């Protein structure tokens, strides 16, 4: 088994496009790290650089402490599982799984042993003679994983391996991939654009944006303590509600348009930076689950409620998503500054969404009072987008 280290790795193409910018990351032995971010953020480029399929412009890549930056793909002890499976249609399952071993001239007996062990692990022992066309999408994905497993690599690289599956099978395969990775105990770097996959599968999640690593942390920390507005908005479905607010003198409350929202004593005590924003604007964020419809007696007076008009109700069975509008200024989590350093944030009308009990009776057009759990407010600098609570955590190393 081994570890994987990326030390300030960058990739700039000949046309000047910076695909990856000084990414510093460590994957421990047996750890499952998920790279997540929007299309074009550099996730797959990182994977290809680790595999040796893409040259790096700057930085170093180490496998188990050994420098492999200039090593050829076949000399790196890694195995990659691709999005499109890349199975040979004319070969059986056994032959597909054994293909890389055949290319390495592994003795036939050893090939057969490894293939049968992998097939047993994947629950495919009775399908070794089948051809890919006879298999379901999930079974084909298992064959692709089996081909990686038999190499007995030090590191697994997975490039959106479940994206071609339907929603139900994707959920099933998520569990299977995690179980297999745990049994094998190999360091794994997994790429996806699906935040649900990232949050449910990763020991740690690395959020990418425009080639830059925004935050790497356990899923719970990514969700509860996002390093910046981009992470806050990208991780979570529905996204965090983000509003521009003015901080009152003494940092006791926030003014959101014509509405006032209190800042709790605990928030002021634990976030001393808030005092420096008194009389200035900052960005306040609240997760949909920290909003409820309806107010208890007296709650409006203590500044824990907002007023809104229901625009849409989504009934999802186990919950309702209530989309509302109100007199608040929405803050955009996309690019914060121009190349010249000038603010480019777009401010829109006060839309938001609340995740509430499915038994609630609420209809489009209804005026509602939204009670805010002010203990769970998030605060961000309006210029940098960084959280007032913390900076991006440094990569964890062992």
In summary, what is this structure?
With 398 residues, the chain is α+β, with helices and mostly antiparallel strands.
Q: Determine Rg (CA atoms, Å).
A: 25 Å
Query: Could you tell me the mean pLDDT?
Result: 87
Largest pleated sheet: 10 strands, antiparallel
Order of helices and strands: EEEHEEEHHHEHEHEEHHEEEHEEEEEEE
CATH homologous superfamily title of the largest domain: P-loop containing nucleotide triphosphate hydrolases
Q: Tell me the structural class.
A: alpha+beta
Describe this structure in words.
By secondary structure, the protein is an alpha+beta fold. Helix content is 23%, strand content 31%. It has two domains: 4-230, Rossmann fold (3-Layer(aba) Sandwich), CATH 3.40.50; 234-380, OB fold (Dihydrolipoamide Acetyltransferase, E2P). The strands form three sheets. Strands 11, 12, 13, 14, 15, 16, 17, 18, 19 and 20 form a ten-stranded antiparallel β-sheet that branches. The chain starts with a strand and ends in an 18-residue tail after the last strand.
Helix-strand blueprint:
Elements (H helix, E strand, L loop, with lengths): L3 E9 L5 E10 L4 E5 L6 H9 L6 E6 L2 E2 L10 E4 L11 H11 L4 H15 L14 H13 L5 E5 L7 H18 L2 E6 L2 H7 L2 E6 L2 E6 L1 H6 L4 H6 L6 E7 L5 E4 L2 E4 L2 H6 L10 E6 L4 E3 L11 E11 L4 E12 L15 E10 L10 E6 L5 E3 L18
Parallel strand pairs: 3-8, 3-9, 6-7, 7-8
Antiparallel strand pairs: 1-2, 1-4, 4-5, 9-10, 11-12, 11-14, 11-17, 12-13, 14-20, 15-19, 16-17, 16-19, 17-18
Helix pairs in contact: 2-3, 2-4, 3-4
């Amino acid at each position: 088994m081994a570890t994987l280290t990326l030390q300030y790795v960058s990739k700039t193409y000949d046309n000047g496009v910076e695909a990856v910018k000084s990414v510093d990351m460590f994957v421990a032995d047996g750890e499952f790290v998920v790279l997540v971010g929007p299309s074009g953020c550099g996730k797959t480029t990182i994977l290809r650089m680790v595999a040796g399929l893409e040259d790096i412009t700057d930085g170093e890549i180490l496998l188990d402490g050994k420098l492999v930056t200039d090593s050829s793909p076949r000399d790196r002890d890694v195995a990659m599982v691709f999005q499109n499976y890349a199975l040979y249609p004319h070969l059986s399952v056994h032959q597909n799984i054994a293909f890389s071993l055949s290319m390495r001239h592994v003795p036939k007996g050893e090939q057969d042993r490894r293939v049968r062990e992998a097939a047993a692990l994947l629950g495919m022992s009775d399908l070794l003679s089948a051809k890919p066309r006879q298999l379901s999408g999930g079974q084909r994905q298992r064959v692709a994983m089996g081909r990686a497993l038999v190499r007995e690599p030090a590191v697994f690289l997975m490039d959106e391996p479940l994206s071609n599956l339907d929603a139900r099978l994707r959920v099933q395969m998520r569990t299977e991939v995690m179980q297999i990775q745990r049994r094998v105990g190999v360091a794994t770097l997994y790429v996806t654009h699906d935040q649900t996959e990232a949050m449910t599968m990763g020991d740690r999640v690395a959020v990418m944006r425009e080639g830059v690593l925004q935050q790497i942390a356990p899923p719970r920390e990514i969700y509860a303590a996002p390093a910046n507005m981009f992470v806050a908005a990208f991780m979570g479905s529905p996204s965090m509600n983000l509003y521009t607010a003015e901080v009152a003198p003494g940092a006791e409350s926030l003014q959101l348009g014509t509405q006032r929202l209190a800042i709790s004593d605990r928030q002021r005590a634990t976030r001393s930076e808030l005092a420096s924003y008194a009389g200035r604007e900052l960005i306040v964020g609240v997760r949909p689950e920290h909003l409820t419809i309806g107010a208890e007696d007296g709650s409006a007076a203590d500044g824990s409620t907002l007023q809104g008009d229901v625009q849409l109700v989504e009934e999802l069975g186990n919950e309702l998503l209530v989309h509302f509008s109100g007199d608040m200024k929405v803050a955009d989590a996309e690019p914060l500054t121009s190349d010249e350093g000038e603010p480019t944030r777009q401010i829109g009308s006060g839309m938001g969404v609340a995740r509430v009990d499915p038994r609630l009776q609420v209809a489009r057009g209804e005026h509602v009072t939204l009670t805010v759990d002010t203990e769970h407010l998030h605060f961000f600098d309006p210029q940098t987008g960084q959280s007032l609570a913390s900076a991006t955590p440094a990569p964890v190393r062992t």
